[in-house]
Amino acid sequence: MPLGEFDVIARYFSRSSPRSDVLLGVGDDAALLTPPPGQALVAATDTLVEGRHFLPGTPANAIGHQALAVNLSDLAAMGAEPAWALLALSMPRSDERWLADFADGLYALAERHGVALVGGDTVSGPLVVTIEVLGFVPPAAALLRSGARAGDLIVVSGGLGVAAAGLEELQSGRAAFESKDARVRRFLRAEPRLALGRALRGFATAAMDVSDGLLGDLGKLARSSGVGACIDLERLPVASELAAYPLAEQERLVLHGGDDYELLFTLPADHFGHIAHFSEAGGCSLQCIGSMVPGAGVECRRDGARVNVAGKGYDHFAC
Ligand code: ADP
Ligand code: MG
Fold first, then answer.
1. Could you tell me if the CB of 121 is within 6 A of ligand 1?
2. What is the CATH number of the domain that holds 39?
3. Residue 15's domain spans which residues?
4. How far is ligand 1, taken at its centre, from the CA of residue 9, in Å?
5. What confidence tens digit (pLDDT) does each residue in 206-221 have?
6. How far away, in angstroms, is 78 Cα from ligand 1 center?
7. Which of 21, 129, 152, 173 is the most exposed place for a label (fewest CB within 10 A)?
């Protein structure tokens, strides 16, 4: 007998809340939550559709992780601290093993960041996972996409392109989901840069997370800010996982690869010293790749000369 909807919720999505600000969690018509006074509530939601955001056959544990990670990454990009999550889960059947693995993946990440799952919805249908996260930030400290100014440095965290390389390993059949390959692990288990996002409060003029590829996402940040961006291709960070790739491949993956969930941000040059200690303290590497310029659009330079770079970021309705 497959589990009914209420048993699914009771068995897999009703773990006790680690937070005292949850007055009422899963079980009633809605959750009751107490945001801290003086802070802005930050809300973000993201949907993962099987076959579009994750490959059919992806381990349930990784889907649970990823569904929350992409949302936490949005909060990281706002400089916010996450608190609560809601999960809307559509699945073809109530497979207990799948549910247990999925819940483990989701709760493991939630616990690491002190996030409580406080509600959701469970329906039958194609496999689609929607999570909404709520968190806080002092209103004046929120990191927006729109604050970059000409002259600001452009900085990215960590290693870009690694997740895209992992996806290609999986798609080509060269690696399996269970592989220990660092690229595959990175694709399946991106770690949202929450600590970095908070460290950027008061220093970054604009920030966003890189989900659809550096070049496309930088274009969005530049447009929101009403300025242009200029990056030096020789300054792109190349992660050790990509060291063996030919140069052109490295560049393609770093500029256009999605799913890394690193942070892309801008800041005045004299602020860089304030955040450099973050990587030294074991946070993650930070690489300055160029600067914002008057005008519009993203320009790429190689050894000082302007070059055209083909390709663009992911767009659901443009492919
Ligand atoms: P209603 O019909 O009033 O929307 P539901 O039966 O859908 O209530 O849900 C019952 C309770 O379980 C609610 O508190 C809801 O937030 C929670 N819930 C439902 N599905 C999930 C889920 N997948 N994860 C977490 N909480 C859930
Ligand atoms: Mg409901």
1. yes
2. 3.30.1330.10
3. 5-141
4. 7
5. 999 999 999 999 999 9
6. 28
7. 173
Report pLDDT digits (tens) over 128-166.
Answer: 999 999 999 999 999 999 999 999 999 999 989 999 999
- Ligand nearest 30 Cα, by number? 1
> Which residue, judged by its Cα, is nearest atom 7 of ligand 1?
121
Pair of tokens at residue 138: 């002092």
- Does the model's pTM come out above 0.85? yes
Nearest to 263 by CA among 313, 315, 228, 221: 221
* Rg for the chain, CA atoms, rounded: 20
The domain total for the chain is 2
Nearest-CA residue for ligand 1 atom 24 is 120
CA of 116 from ligand 1 middle (Å) equals 14
Nearest atom (ligand 1) to Cα of 122: 20
Of 110, 141, 172, which residue sits at a domain end?
A: 141
Strand partners, 120: 87
Give how far Cα 214 sits from Cα of 86, 169, 248, 257, 297, Å: 29, 20, 16, 7, 13
Kindly state the tokens that stand for 280.
């030294």
